[in-house]
Amino acid sequence: MEAAFFSGAWELKRQETQHTRMLGQFDEAKREVFEQQMKLNELQSEIDNDIARVDESYEQQSGDLLQAMQREGYAGTRAAKEYASEREAAANRFYTEMVTEGRRQVDSAKTQHLLWENDVYASEGGRLYLAREQASRLKIKSVILNSNAEGVPSPLDLDVMTRLMLGTERK
């Protein structure tokens, strides 16, 4: 036997199976990123609600304090201003902490997504997928194997040929 040609259907089916499995892993990573984004949105909503409550509490307490001072004839605007500054600073610190935590969680999810993607490409199927992508760019018209030479595998033995393509068997 001087030459052997295989139909691409078998290899294509194997690639499709590996690709489907990889897409499932990618979808899982995307879902994780989406969940982390949802958590970030919830934290942002909580922050906005807390700021609104702090503002409402501030307005109420400032108004109450101002009325009390006016009724008593006490000019305590300095105390009201100090209290307002303290409350505003506390609200700003809380907001900053919550935003920072949300961003950290989103960054963590993105990092996990990249790690999963790298794991997929490092797997046997991922390596096969990448090799197939590179091989598809090659322009080879034909390959002739000397079946009489020692150590040349039989192109009819699909198991040996598959292991050779994956790099798991030596000549």
Contiguous uncertain segments of 5+ residues: none
| Major sheet summary line | none
Q: Give the end-to-end Cα distance, rounded to a whole number of Å.
A: 18 Å
The counted number of beta strands is: 0
Q: What count of structural domains?
A: 1
Order of helices and strands: HHHH
Total number of helices: 4
- Backbone shape: rod-shaped
Global Rg = 33 Å
> What is the helix fraction of residues, given as a range?
over 70%
Quote the beta fraction.
under 5%
Q: Structural class given helices, strands, pairing?
A: mainly alpha
The overall pLDDT, averaged over residues, is: 80
What's the quick description here?
By secondary structure, this protein is an all-alpha fold. It has helices at 8-72, 77-122, 124-136, 158-166.
Note the main attributes of this structure.
171 residues, mainly alpha
Structural overview:
The structure is a single chain. With 171 residues, this protein is mostly helical. The chain has one domain. Helices cover 78% and strands 0% of the residues. It contains 4 helices and no strands. It has helices spanning 8-72, 77-122, 124-136, 158-166. Helix 1 (8-72) runs antiparallel to helix 2, helix 1 (8-72) packs across helix 3 and helix 2 packs across helix 3 (124-136). The longest helix has 65 residues, at 8-72. It is rod-shaped, with a radius of gyration of 33 Å.
